[in-house]
Amino acid sequence: MRVVAVACALFLMICVMGCVKQNVPVQFDTSDPLALDVEVQWAVVTEPYVACYESADYASRVVTHFRKAEILQVIGESTVTSGGDKEKWYAFEAGWLPASNVAVYANKMRAKTAVKQLGVN
Predict the structure, then answer these.
(1) Residue 26's CB: how many other CB atoms inside 10 A?
(2) pLDDT score for 2
(3) Which of 72, 83, 102, 105 is 20 to 30 A from 46 in CA distance terms?
């Protein structure tokens, strides 16, 4: 009976201490102000190696390449019709990538989580 009383007292003390307000200031990470901006989308490269084009067209010049798990800020998008088929392209600072090569997320935190799930070092 004594053990039960001690356990109940300990449990009650832990509950009361958890409800006490602690003076710990909340700190926000301001190093990347666009990371949670609702108007900015982020893309994660899903293919091992992709070509980035000068315009939203496979016939345009390749300006750079990206590797799997790279995170890029989306600055625009376009739907291109070629041979009766429609394909969506995303614009980045470096150029354009087809939607089939990336996964797009609403914020950078979700993109970082997706990179972790890809398991790429």
Answers:
(1) 4
(2) 74
(3) 83
59/79 Cα distance (integer angstroms): 16
Q: Quick one: CA torsion of 95, 66, 69, 104, rounded to 10 degrees?
A: 20
What pLDDT, in 10s, does the model give residues 35-62? 666 789 999 999 999 999 999 999 999 9
Instruction: Specify the pTM.
Output: 0.71
Q: What is the pLDDT of residue 15?
A: 63
- Nearby residues of 69 by Cβ (< 8 Å), 6 or more positions away: 44, 45, 115, 118, 120
CB-count exposure of residue 85 (10 Å: 0-12, 13-18, 19+): exposed
Could you read off the pLDDT of 11-21 as tens digits, one per residue?
666 766 666 66
Question: What are the Cα distances from residue 22, in Å, to 17, 26, 29?
Answer: 10, 11, 21
Please name the residues in contact with 110: beta carbons below 8 A apart, sequence gap of 6 or more.
42
Q: Are strands 62-67 and 102-105 parallel, antiparallel or unpaired?
A: unpaired
